[in-house]
Design goal:
Blueprint: E1 4-11, E2 18-24, E3 28-36, H1 41-58, H2 61-72, H3 78-97, H4 103-111, E4 117-126, E5 131-137, E6 141-146, E7 149-154, E8 167-169, E9 173-175, E10 179-184, E11 190-194, H5 211-219, H6 224-234, E12 242-249
Antiparallel strand pairs: 1-12, 2-3, 3-4, 4-5, 4-8, 5-10, 6-7, 6-11, 8-9, 11-12
Helix pairs in contact: 1-3, 5-6
Length: 250
């Protein structure tokens, strides 16, 4: 079975509303990234609680057993991923309504009556059948790098004029429509998950989008996520919290 090398970085001291997780099940990987909407403190409440609930449900013994069986049978896992995420949404909405959340989050809610909402991107890498599945609400991105090129896989382009209309709310649930997709992956592929602040397509005014990021990957993969975020900060283009998870299939 293929192995995965990982580089990841989490720069979260501007609005403090990004969250992420990496869950290695051996035969598969889950990656979750979330970015609070509107850059307020309740965005952190939503991003953290939502990903925490999804990761909790991933670690359910019955879910793991069924997922492994589905992979061994070569099943399409888009609906499995959809069910996992949307059941987790329902669960955390119930917890939030009944105030079954950490005490420090309760204190934050008392001081702010806004709607806690966040973008959500969940990736599932099936190492048995070599498939990538993604569930995306919002403008976080997933990219596949193959043959030295950067291919967009899901969600909306950060550099487009798109106005954010899809996200998850602890009060109203899913707003807009989720992008649920799948793609075949191969040994040697690099898969990138990033919130909008990580700007993997950033380049100088007359440069080619994505080339600076690709150069960082080729120089030092193990530290590439950290070095890319540091590069953005040095060039004064890090205007938002940034989460970057990079996986190489070897």
């Amino acid at each position: 079975m293929p192995k995965i090398e990982i580089s990841h970085c989490y720069k979260n001291d501007i609005h403090n509303d990004d969250s992420y997780f990496i869950q290695d099940l051996g035969f598969s990987f889950f990656i979750g990234i979330s970015d609070g909407v509107s850059s307020n403190k309740l965005g952190k409440v939503c991003s953290f609680l939502t990903l925490d609930k999804i990761q909790f449900n991933i670690n359910n013994k019955l879910f793991i057993e069924n997922l492994k069986k589905d992979m061994e049978e070569g099943k399409d896992l888009k609906m499995v991923l959809k069910s996992l995420v949307e059941i987790s949404f329902r669960d955390i909405m119930d917890d939030y309504k009944e105030k079954r959340i950490p005490k420090h989050f309760k204190e934050m809610i008392k001081k702010d009556s806004d709607d806690p909402k966040a973008t959500v991107l969940i990736g599932l890498i099936d190492l048995v059948n070599m498939m990538l599945y993604t569930y995306s609400l919002g403008d976080s991105e997933c990219w596949i790098i193959r043959n030295g090129c950067l291919y967009s896989h899901c969600g909306f382009s950060i550099n487009s004029d798109h106005v954010l209309v899809s996200y998850f709310s602890l009060l109203t649930g899913i707003n807009g429509f989720a992008d649920i997709s799948s793609r075949k992956i191969y040994s040697g592929d690099i898969i990138v998950f990033n919130t909008d602040g990580a700007k993997v397509t950033w380049t100088s005014k007359f440069g080619i989008p994505g080339i600076p990021f690709l150069r960082h990957l080729s120089q030092d993969f193990a530290n590439s996520a950290y070095k890319w975020i540091s590069f953005l900060e040095t060039n004064k283009v890090l205007a938002d919290d940034a989460t970057l998870v990079i996986l190489k299939i070897v």
